[in-house]
Hints:
The chain is of the alpha/beta class. The chain is 40% helix and 18% strand. The chain has helices spanning 25-35, 55-64, 81-97, 113-125; strands spanning 9-15, 42-47, 69-74, 102-105. Strands 2-1-3-4 form a four-stranded parallel β-sheet, with helices on both faces. Strand 1 (9-15), helix 1 and strand 2 form a beta-alpha-beta unit.
Amino acid sequence: MTAMHQPDSAIVLFGHGARDPEWAGPMRRIRDTVLARADAPKVELAFLEFMRPTLTEAIAALARDGVRKVAVVPVFLAQGGHLKRDLPVLLDEARAAHPGCEITLATAAGEADPVVRAMADYAASCLG
């Protein structure tokens, strides 16, 4: 059973960013896969550095579009320094700037059990 998403809800896939624009290819594929669902919410990409939009810019644009609930999903393998130090500051700033918008933070994607299982299955399949 799939949950119905409210039109005023959105997901922000948050990544580190890189100087090479091709680095964001997998994040675009994740976004496109979510958007292909019948019940798809809005989905935006955001980056910590080197790429645009930043998290601040992405959340501001969504809030201007009437989004009132944003789930920030870190597309990181683990909860490292950026997620422990930098992201909380960015989220506090976004929450202060958009008090009418509920902004939640998901676990780093690489730490989520379904993702860990998928990576384990992939690793096991590499032997042929």
